[in-house]
Amino acid sequence: MVLALAKEIKMRKSEFKDEIVETVYFGGGTPSVLSNAEINFLTQCVYDNFNVSSAPEITLEANPDDLSDNRIIELSNTPVNRLSIGIQSFFEDDLQMMNRAHNSEEAKKCLETAVQYFDNISLDLIYGIPGMSNEKWQQNIETALAFGIPHISSYALTVEPKTALKKLIQTGKIAAPKDDVAQEHFEILVEALERNGFIHYELSNFAKENYFSKNNSAYWLGKKYIGIGPSAHSYDGISRSWNIANNSLYLKRIEEGKLPSETEILTKNDRYNEYIMTGLRTVWGVSLSRIATEFGTEYLDYLNKNAQKYIDDGKLIVENNTLKTTKSGKFLGDGIASDLFMLN
User: Is the dihedral of CA 141, 94, 114, 225 positive or negative?
Assistant: First the structure.
């Protein structure tokens, strides 16, 4: 698989010939299973085939049970300069309910060691968990802050089909997540992190100054990206492509010298809708000038007309010719965006 990833990197070098790579992200699946030699090899492949910035952000995604003291020390000797750790919760009952492989002690232990070897660390927290009181959620936030972590990504609990959690809810063993609880937890999170010097730069992402994720920001700002490996997605501003999910078929196609991907050309409406969706999730908002220039006055008029009710309700605001969500509109951002979409 590692050799196939390297080959795909080489096969796709022409797609980024005019771009500078600012971020490399080892994510999806369990990239922490890679050895140091494999991480070094794949990183060198990126350098050999692309124009990489002088100070790229190189992130590795991992779970606490993968991050023993020795593994963290090993990783600090690779080009990886940022860790994204899937903590989810510091409480045992929450982790068991979400069927996580790690326990509360492992979560805390890995952070204690990680902060000694990495300056740039992000952790994930889940809110809206059934039975989680506001006080318990506040404790989760305070525990995260106590480690001095400069970046936190936080998401509402979603129940995926065919999971143990879905089964527990269907059989009535636990309650289903409630939207009003999730919104209350979100508001507690925003207030606590802003009070502690974090900038709420994207709906689910909070960071201290100079610690915004370059990877996340590139996505939300609509920059090009290339995804390498099975199931990976890529985007070039005009089209979206995705690799086959099956590992065996992926390896076979790469061995044959064929890119194992499908491509969808985005329509003008697709591109407009995507910009509305991503823009409203961020502190950068939706540039009305860009709408007029890139999409035309028809789209600008449509946006202004449909946004007006949310402006009147105090959920949206226009500042410096940029449409943004207000504090009260942030949690509802995705729903507001869908009302502003141009339908085919």
Answer: negative
